Amino acid sequence: MPIAFKEWAVTVRALAEGEQLLTLRKGFLRESGKPFRLAHERFFLYPTFDNQSGDLVRESHQPELRRALEEGVWSDGEPPLHTFTSGVPIQQPDRVRIRAWAEVAGHFTITDPRCVDALSPFYVWTPSYAERRLGWRRQQPLHVLLLRTYRIPRPVTVKVKDEYNVSQNWVELQRELPFEGTPVLSDAEFERASEEIEAIASEAGAPVLV
Question: Rounded to two decimals, what is the model's pTM?
């Protein structure tokens, strides 16, 4: 069965539109019990709504919050937009839409907040939130994953199962999905952006073999 990577719905939407090229993580990415190796290098993008707050998304991308709600399907109707800023937990949808998959094109570890800020053109979160990810579990470096994202020909809805809601980065989808689709950026656009990202990350961190 295909593997999916869990990320905020607004981030999944940004990745699928080519507006974000990175994800940032502290741990929970490796294969259990082995020297560090990314558990999966190609995966579908699974949108979540846990702990997703509107004030953690840059003002320029606030309109994406409304579009992010399109990533879920609720039997009793879509939550109102103000839920993102109310502080009240968003009810989990009955189904989510899978519209994209990604492959890891680069993997770096960083510890310098200046590097996190320099990478901000490539993510939609506020820089302060990205730095909070760096500060959590300070003894561990922050993993920067450079993703090449592809939109699948037609979004697929997947029923949300209880096991999908546990605190893990990876979920195994209970239906077959092919790795097909069109890259969200052209080869030239992605190459230019990836060179800049690699230059920033390499100055303040270290590449990781995946």
Answer: 0.86
